[in-house]
């Protein structure tokens, strides 16, 4: 199928891009195009105008300091994945990004675009929520920061207004004493996950003071569950998590199989994250 007709604009400044979005209710931002272009081709989206931000300067940065990793709107998944410094500051970035699609798609697709696309089957929205990061957005009205907990409104729906551009995402650094792990099951490596689970644990000596899990493909929006109590009470953290998740049937897997994967992967990632925290302390 071919996309419905649309106007196309490739502004060379952020201000121009923001003015175009503000002036056209049906306009949409085009970043890497790896989600939007298939939607256009299948006519699941029919914007009146595409505002291509690829010529806007100063959006391709990956800035790293002790607070965390700041990723500009035009930084490609592949560039973030290739950054050893980003992986050292926040190891969950590379752990999850290596499961995002295939190299050709990662070469073009942007990490910020994936966050705004807000797909509960995508890895990076879950990672942003689990790490309690945020996204900085700009519009003709000014700038604001949206915490990850307030970014996802529903399936494929973020809380950005139609005329806002996400300019940067912030992923906090891994704290001292913390550990992370990620695993997913997909039909082929790089396909969307049938289920993915990430763990973030915080140790104080031998004591586990925090244990949170982030889930991919088992709810409508990226979901994080705090299982600290279940872990410390020697209860079943996966059962605690499943009480808050909604695994669903689709053509790829049954709800029952997804629930089974949640149990298996939860056990694995919690153990791996605790090992990770201990190995960092040595
Ligand atoms: P685009 O396609 O350009 O845009 C996506 C949406 O976000 C659009 O609505 C657009 O208007 C909006 N948008 C983008 N950037 C901004 C911005 N800066 N400000 C405001 N709005 C913006 N992803 C995964 O996470 N895991 C996978 O396993 C996976 N597998 C894939 C397999 C295939 C075959 C394909 C084609 C894609 C796959 N993807 C996967 C999607 C990929 O990661 C996309 O790159 C990503 O979801 C969107 O980034 P993009 O830059 O391509 O955004």
User: Helix fraction?
Assistant: 25-40%
Radius of gyration: 19 Å
Summarize the biggest pleated sheet: 5 strands, antiparallel
Q: Percent of residues in beta strands? A: 25-35%
- Shape verdict: globular
Number of domains: 3
The H-and-E topology, N to C, reads as EHEHEEEHHHHHHEEEEEEEEEHHH
What is the CATH class name of the largest domain?
Answer: Alpha Beta
**CATH architecture title of the largest domain:** 2-Layer Sandwich
Structural class: alpha+beta
Overall description:
The chain is of the alpha+beta class. The protein has 3 domains: 7-52, Uridine Diphospho-n-acetylenolpyruvylglucosamine Reductase, domain 2 (2-Layer Sandwich), CATH 3.30.43; 62-172, Uridine Diphospho-n-acetylenolpyruvylglucosamine Reductase, domain 3 (2-Layer Sandwich), CATH 3.30.465; 178-281, CO dehydrogenase flavoprotein, C-terminal domain (Enolase-like, domain 1). It is built from 11 helices and 14 strands. It has a 5-stranded antiparallel beta sheet with strand order 4-5-10-6-7. Flavin-adenine dinucleotide binds next to strand 2, helix 2, helix 7, helix 8 and strand 10. The site of flavin-adenine dinucleotide has 28 residues, from strand 2, helix 2, helix 7, helix 8 and strand 10.
């Amino acid at each position: 199928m071919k996309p419905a007709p649309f106007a196309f604009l490739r502004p060379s400044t952020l201000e121009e891009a923001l003015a175009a979005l503000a002036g056209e209710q049906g306009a949409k931002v085009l970043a890497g195009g790896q989600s939007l272009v298939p939607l256009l081709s299948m006519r699941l989206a029919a914007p009146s105008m595409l505002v291509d931000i690829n010529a806007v300067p100063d959006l391709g940065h990956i800035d790293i300091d002790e607070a965390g990793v700041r990723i500009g709107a035009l930084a490609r998944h592949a560039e973030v994945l290739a950054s050893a410094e980003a992986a050292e500051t926040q190891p969950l970035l590379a752990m999850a990004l290596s499961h995002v699609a295939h190299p050709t798609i990662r070469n073009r697709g942007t990490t910020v675009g994936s966050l705004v696309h807000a797909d509960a089957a995508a890895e990076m929205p879950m990672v942003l929520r689990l790490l309690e990061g945020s996204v900085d957005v700009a519009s003709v009205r000014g700038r604001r920061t949206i915490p990850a907990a307030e970014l996802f409104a529903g399936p494929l729906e973020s809380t950005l207004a139609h005329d806002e551009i996400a300019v940067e995402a912030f992923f906090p650094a891994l704290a001292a004493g913390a550990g992370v792990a990620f695993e997913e099951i997909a039909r082929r490596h790089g396909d969307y996950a049938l289920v993915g689970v990430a763990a973030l644990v915080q140790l104080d000596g031998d004591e586990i003071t925090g244990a949170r899990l982030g889930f991919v493909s088992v709810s409508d929006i990226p979901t994080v569950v705090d299982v600290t109590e279940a872990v410390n009470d020697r209860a079943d953290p996966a059962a605690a998590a499943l009480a808050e998740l909604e695994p669903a049937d689709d053509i790829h897997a049954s709800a029952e199989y997804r629930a089974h994967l949640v149990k298996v992967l939860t056990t694995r990632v919690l153990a791996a994250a605790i090992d990770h925290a201990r190995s960092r302390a040595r």
